[in-house]
Design a protein that fits this description.
- The structure holds two protein chains of two kinds.
- Chain A is an alpha+beta fold.
- Among the domains of chain A are: 50 residues; 78 residues, Rod shape-determining protein MreC, domain 2 (Thrombin, subunit H).
- Chain A is built from three helices and twelve strands.
- Chain A has a six-stranded antiparallel β-barrel.
- In chain A, a hairpin with a 4-residue loop joins β4 and β5.
- Chain A is globular.
- Chain B is globular, with a radius of gyration of 16 Å.
- In chain B, α1 crosses α2 and α3 runs antiparallel to α4.
- Chain B is built from six helices and no strands.
- Classes of the chains: A alpha+beta, B mainly alpha.
- At the A-B interface, α1, α2 and β1 of A face α1, α2, α3, α4 and α6 of B.
Chain lengths: 304, 170
C-alpha cells in the first residue's frame, strides 16, 4: 500500500502507523509503566503557567469571592463563639464516658494549581506543596466543605491528588447520625455520581443525612464530611442499598485545599487510624492526648 | 525547528487551558474538547504528517495528565490529526462550514472513543453517553469556528488557503 503512494505521503503513513502502534502498546502495557516521574516533570514545567492562569482567574473573581468570604467569616465567628462554650464541657463529658479525646488535624493549606484527568469531571489535581513541605502519599486532601481526595504522588515541591471522582478510589464511610457503614465510590455511567454502596438492605438511611469518613478507613482520618444523601435505592442485585450522595466539597471549582496527614502505618502493628477530625481546632479547650492515653489506656480501644 | 517550537507551544497552551479554565467549565457540564480543537486547527494548517505528530504529542501529554489508560488520547488524536490533515488537501479549508463539520465530526469521534473507556452502565448508560457526546460536539464546533474566524480577522489574512494550497491575502 505504502509503496504506491508518493514519498511525502508515504512518510506520513509510516509516521502515523508508528504513532498508532506506540499508542496501542501504551494502552496495553501503560498501567505497568511508572509514569510518576514523567508526571512530576510535567507538573514542574506547567506549575509556573498554572500559577499565572490561576492568579488571573482569582483576580477576575476576587470581588464576588471577597463579599462571600466576609459573610462567611461573620457566620463562622458566631458559630465559633457557640462552639467554644460547648468545647469547654465536651472534654469533661468525653472523659466521663471513657471516650478518646478529639485530636485536631494539622492541616496544611495548599493551592490547587491545575485539575486534570477525566472529562467532564476532573479526577486529579496538582497541589502546590510536595515532600519538602511534608506532603506525603496517602495524605487526605480536603476543603473547608469536605473531603476532596488523597495524595497519590508526591514530588519535592509539588504533589498530585486523586480526587473522589476517580472511579478507582473507594472510601470507607459512614452515615453521620446512624453510623451505617458503606463504601463511597464514583460511578461514571449511566451518569457520573458518587454512590455509597455495600449498605445492608436492613439499614435505615434517609435523604439529607451527612456521610463522613469512617473509623474503618485505613487511609482517611475519621469524621471528614464526604457528602449528603440525595437518593436512596437498591443496587442491581437488589440485595444491597445503593445511595447517591452529593459531594460536600465543590469539586467543580477547587482553588485552595488543605492536606491532612493520613494514618501512618506503625512499625509494630496493623495500620489503624488514630486521628479524629475536628473541623474547628479550639485552642485551650482540648485536653492533651498524652494525658488521656496514660490515664486510661483501655479506653482508647474503639468498638469494631 | 520553528515548526517544532510552535508545536510545543500550541500543545502547552491547549493543555494549560484544559487544566485550568476548561476543567472548571467541564465540571459544570460545558465540555469544550480543546484537544480536538487544537489538533484539527493544527492539522488544517500543517497537513497530515505534522497533524499526526501534533495529535500524538498532545494526546500523550493528556494521557500522562490522566490517572489511567496511557495511550487513549494519543491514539485517537494521532488518527484525527492524520485524517484531518489528509482532508485539508482536498477541502476548502477557509470555509467556516467545512471547519464546523470537521470539528464536529472529530469531536464526536474523540468523545465516543474516550467515553467508551468509562462506559460500564450497559444500555442504561446510553442516554448519558449520547448526551455527553452531543453536548461536547455542539459546544466545541461553533466555538472552534468562531475562534478560527477571530484568529483570521486578527491576522487580517486567510489562515489556511484552499484546496490548491494557495493562501490569498484578505
Amino acid at each position: 500500500m505504502a509503496s504506491i503512494l508518493p514519498p511525502a505521503e508515504r512518510r506520513s503513513v509510516v509516521l502515523v502507523t508508528a504513532y498508532a502502534a506506540l499508542s496501542l502498546i501504551l494502552l496495553v502495557v501503560g498501567e505497568r509503566i511508572p509514569a510518576s516521574g514523567l508526571r512530576g516533570v510535567g507538573a514542574a514545567v506547567f506549575a509556573p503557567f498554572d500559577r499565572i492562569a490561576g492568579a488571573a482567574d482569582r483576580l477576575f473573581t476576587s470581588w464576588n469571592e471577597n463579599t462571600k468570604l466576609h459573610e462567611r467569616v461573620a457566620t463562622l465567628e458566631a458559630e465559633n463563639a457557640r462552639l467554644r462554650l460547648e468545647a469547654a464541657e465536651n472534654p469533661r463529658l468525653r472523659q466521663q464516658l471513657g471516650l478518646t479525646a478529639w485530636h485536631s488535624l494539622p492541616l496544611k493549606p495548599v493551592e490547587v494549581l491545575a485539575l486534570g484527568g477525566g472529562e467532564p469531571l476532573p479526577d486529579a489535581a496538582t497541589l502546590s506543596a510536595g515532600r519538602n513541605d511534608g506532603v506525603q502519599v496517602g495524605d487526605a486532601v480536603m476543603t473547608s466543605d469536605g473531603l476532596v481526595g488523597r495524595v497519590t504522588e508526591s514530588w519535592p515541591t509539588l504533589s498530585r491528588a486523586t480526587l473522589l471522582t476517580d472511579a478507582n478510589q473507594a472510601i470507607a464511610c459512614e452515615v453521620e447520625t446512624t453510623g451505617v457503614n458503606g463504601i463511597v465510590r464514583f460511578v461514571a455511567a449511566p451518569r457520573p455520581r458518587l454512590i455509597l454502596s455495600a449498605v445492608a438492605i436492613a439499614d435505615t438511611v434517609r435523604v439529607g443525612e451527612r456521610v463522613v469518613t469512617s473509623d474503618l478507613s485505613l487511609r482517611f482520618p475519621r469524621g471528614i464530611p464526604v457528602g449528603t444523601v440525595t437518593r436512596v435505592g437498591h443496587d442491581a442485585t437488589g440485595l444491597m442499598q445503593e445511595i447517591e450522595i452529593t459531594p460536600a466539597a465543590r469539586l467543580a471549582r477547587l482553588r485552595h485545599a488543605f492536606v491532612a496527614p493520613g494514618p501512618r502505618p506503625p512499625a509494630d502493628g496493623i495500620p489503624r487510624p488514630k486521628l479524629e477530625f475536628e473541623p474547628n481546632p479550639l485552642s485551650g479547650a482540648r485536653p492533651p492526648a498524652a494525658r488521656d492515653s496514660t490515664a486510661n489506656p483501655t479506653s482508647k480501644k474503639r468498638p469494631t | 525547528m520553528k515548526a517544532l517550537g510552535m508545536l510545543l507551544f500550541a500543545s502547552l497552551v491547549a493543555l494549560l487551558l484544559r487544566s485550568t479554565i476548561l476543567a472548571g467549565l467541564a465540571a459544570r457540564g460545558v465540555v469544550i474538547d480543546v484537544l480536538v480543537l487544537a489538533t484539527v486547527t493544527w492539522s488544517l494548517r500543517h497537513e497530515e504528517g505534522w497533524g499526526a505528530t501534533f495529535g500524538f504529542v498532545l494526546g500523550l501529554a493528556a494521557d500522562l495528565d490522566a490517572s489511567h489508560w496511557l495511550g487513549r488520547h494519543a491514539l485517537a488524536l494521532t488518527l484525527l490529526g492524520y485524517g484531518v490533515g489528509r482532508l485539508s488537501n482536498t477541502l476548502v479549508r477557509d470555509s467556516p462550514l467545512t471547519q464546523l463539520v470537521l470539528i464536529a465530526v472529530a469531536t464526536a469521534l474523540h468523545q465516543v472513543w474516550v467515553t467508551a473507556f468509562d462506559a460500564t452502565g450497559g444500555v442504561a448508560g446510553l442516554p448519558w453517553f449520547a448526551g455527553r457526546v452531543l453536548l461536547a460536539t455542539v459546544t466545541t464546533a461553533p466555538i472552534g469556528v468562531l475562534l478560527l474566524l477571530l484568529t483570521r480577522l486578527l491576522r487580517r489574512r486567510h489562515g489556511y488557503g484552499n484546496a490548491s494550497g494557495s493562501s490569498a491575502a484578505g
